[in-house]
Design a protein that fits this description.
single chain; about 90 residues; alpha+beta; three-stranded antiparallel β-sheet; 2 helices; about 15% helix; elongated; Cuticle_assoc_protein
C-alpha cells in the first residue's frame, strides 16, 4: 500500500490557508468585526415572574418578592434561585 493520497482524475483540491479555515462555521467573532460582547441571556427560571431583581447601594445583587417585599440574596454564580423557589412554595 502506498502512503501517497490518491486522487480522482480531473479533480483538483485547492490548498487550505489559515484565512479560509477561519471563515467557515464556528469562526471567531473577532474576524467578523464585532466587539466580542455576549448577548444578554433570557431569564429561564419561572421565579422571575414573582421576584424583581435589584442592586443595593453596596453593589450586591438582591431579589425582592413582589408580594411580601422580602429581599433575598441572589447571585448568578453563588446562590442561584433555589431559595427563591422555596419561598414561593411557602406562600402557596
Amino acid at each position: 500500500m502506498s502512503t501517497e493520497p490518491t486522487s480522482i482524475e480531473g479533480s483538483v483540491t485547492p490548498p487550505i490557508s489559515i484565512e479560509s479555515e477561519n471563515s467557515g462555521v464556528g469562526a471567531s467573532s473577532q474576524t467578523k468585526g464585532t466587539t466580542g460582547k455576549r448577548k444578554p441571556t433570557p431569564q429561564r427560571s419561572e421565579v422571575w415572574s414573582h421576584f424583581t431583581k435589584i442592586i443595593n447601594s453596596e453593589g450586591a445583587s438582591k431579589a425582592k418578592y413582589n408580594y411580601c417585599q422580602k429581599e433575598f440574596c441572589w447571585d448568578m454564580k453563588k446562590n442561584r434561585t433555589g431559595s427563591l423557589k422555596y419561598h414561593i412554595g411557602s406562600w402557596s
